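User: Assemble these into one structure.

Assistant: Restating your components, then the assembled model:
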Amino acid sequence: MSRVNLDVNLAAVAGMVTVISVLGSILERTDLFAILNGAIAGLGVITAGPSIVGGKWAIVIGAVSMLICTVGLKILERAHIDDGLDASVAASGMFTHYHLDSRFFDELFRENGIPRAVCRSLSEALVRIHADELVRIQDSVHRHFVHEGITFTTLGKKEVSEQIIPIDCVPRILTAAEWAHIEAGIKQRLRAINLFLRDIYHEGHSLRDGVVPLDLVLGCPQYRVEMRGVRVPHDIYVAIGGTDVVRTDEGFMVLEDNMRVPSGVSYMLACRAAIKRVLPTLYREHRVHEVSSYPERLYSTLVSLSSAVGTPRVAVLTPGRYNSAYYEHAFLAGEMGVDLVEGRDLVVHNAAVYARTASGLRRIDVIYRRKDDDFTDPVIFREDSMLGAAGLFHAYRAGNVVMANAPGTGVADDKAVYAFIPDIIRYFLGEEPILANVDTHLCRTPDGLAFTLDNLQDLVVKEVGGSGGYGMLVGPQSTAPEREAYAARLRADPDNFISQPVLPLSRAACFVDGSLQPRHVDVRPFTLCGGSGQEVVPGGLCRVALQKGSLVVNSSQGGGCKDLWVLKA
Amino acid sequence: MLARVAANFYWMGRYLERTEHTARLLRYQLSGLVDAPADEIALGWRVVYRTLDQPAPSAPADADEAEVFLIADAYTLAGSLVEDYTNPDSMISCWGKARENAKQLRPQLPLQVWTCLNQGFLWLRDCEFPAAWRVAPAQLVSEGIDRLHLLAGVIHVIMPRDDAWQFLELGRFVERFQHQAALLDNWDRIGCLTDHKPRLSWADLLRVCSAYELYCRRHTMTVRRAEVLDFMIRDPEVPRSLRFAVHRIENLLQGIDPLGNRHPMAPPHRMALRLAALVEANVGGLVPVGAGGPERGQLEEGIFDQLAGDANTFHDLVISAYVDYPVAEGLPQ
């Protein structure tokens, strides 16, 4: 018996020594977890016959079994396949306050607290790091944003204030395969949406065939009758799209389409720049897809929409410095090297658009429009608006200037139309949607209204034209009086509302109050559709609901953002 | 360059210069708190406020009253010029307006310039004036000036000499011209009345303008009114002299809009030439009074008012030529 014990222990020790002495270079680490894995490998293999081998062979078996185990581990790691035997890091070090909840998909850990293969080296780095170091990193990112003025503007009753969007320094990681799925789904969606928009402003086949109710589209406040019959370059209505994607246990789903003026891309770029600066080694180790060329790609997309002779002159049209996304407008104009114009800078003469420069008027060929249709041209849209340029739409109709996105794309933003996007994809592309929609109940139908009113406490109710998390009711977090008040609004104007189940958004690790804690996240990838095709930038604005338990990720509702790393295949 | 953007650069230059001007005057006043006579300090405040074209604090009845209210007055008057957002000439106000203009220039403004300007503003905004006052009030203002000089250096090193830079500098020198004219006028009329006590020192004026050392090299350490006025009006190498400013204005206009290109002898160019002529012609300068020689002489009556008026007109002409011009004039031929 003592011989058996000796052989078993010899095999375990041999496995451990092999890790320490030989395998450091293969494993690229020789920490406690790796050494314990060595012992387990030796023990596991020798158990079959400790009584029939001698001490020398026990050592050989221990060492060889560790070699095989290590090579296997490396293969699993490269393939991003989870290793069931790997040691857990949850509930250790910085993760002391990281409590997993089986209701929510966790981006970092599996249900048993073991890091997902793709997040393994990130979680190990986070275990090793000291809280003070993370505080320093977080502070450094924050100061960078303050000094460079990476802000969004909020309008109070009396004053305008600049705010820094809270940045979490722990990145979220997606594998190449996960990204490929999202990318394909978004491209499919954008293709269908552009075909749908062309159709509703021209022949209207989809409306005649009942794919989308006629009254829903024509009654949509974002439907622009002025766009009927207007030729849009390459039939691309949505040149720049933002699609809000969430993950639940059922996989990735589209929560919202932003097809008018999607914003947030500058925060994606600023966040990436900041994280690269403070976590350079970790970033390099992960082989992350780059996003910094977005402005260049955007410029190419805009230019591709113009038929002007020579190099088209591009401008970014902003409502002005009091707009909440003004930083983004200025940033994109600066990065593209084009003018950032306001309505008052533009003059329309003989159906052509000119910018007023210090040395006279200069023709503009392409306008990247960062304001809603209503504020584009007071002659056609809101006549009380001071932000537009009179005659701009006339020049657009005449084909003398390109506007991206085209006026009238807001129909595809409408939350009631959203419910029909899967049908739109099937109708126009003859394909099944790659990314699922969230179940949506239209309050404009009697059944939908009744269901919504009966289940208000369990649903999220939104205005069809709402955005930014404003005007919505989150049933489980509401009080009875709030629900009663909302029900009254629903009954008064049911067409204006939809309801959806409360989604169990996935959670990612965030550095909050001195420790790592899980918070709900979504992601908004940005898509560019130009004359030469579609492109989804491999990354996105990853929004975080920083308040514990909150499911609302909008920055206007206390949300922040974090960097999203899409790994190369 | 967009006309609005040109205007933003121009105003950014003006506000940065105005911030520095206020800070220079404040530094002089606050440094004097340590050892200058109370009635001289009170007189200094009157000159500072008049130079900024603001109502001057009333003069104390006598030296004793000046002594009693010395610190309380200084705290209020300095606080108003440092941290009061409602005072259009305060450092925070001017710096904030420069920053607001810069915010609209983000696509054109190099990141380093914006960051330096923004950091300076945030520093001043977060300064606790009462706490700084208890320790060393002049130091706060000195640091502000250092930060402005750092920004000027960053602009000098980073920005290309294109239209943006030309408009920025144009704004800076128009502002400088107006302020220097006002400073010389008030120092001479209020601060240094002959045969009147207290009086401000002409050497201090040179120190406010960072020109004392150069003056001593050109002349002697004996500072004389006539020579100071001549020096600060006509010397082409003193960065804060009127002549230096007006020559820079002429050069910058040439860069923005070369004569004969768009506006053959455009109104701004004509007015710049007139300003230059006015400065150079009058600097002969002092009309002798009695037998006292130039030291007791007077400047030509109303010369500074005339210079200030012409500078205002020049500003209007710049705006109407490059920013608010009629659309028909700007259409391509």
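The CA atoms of residues 288 and 294 of chain B lie 5 Å apart.
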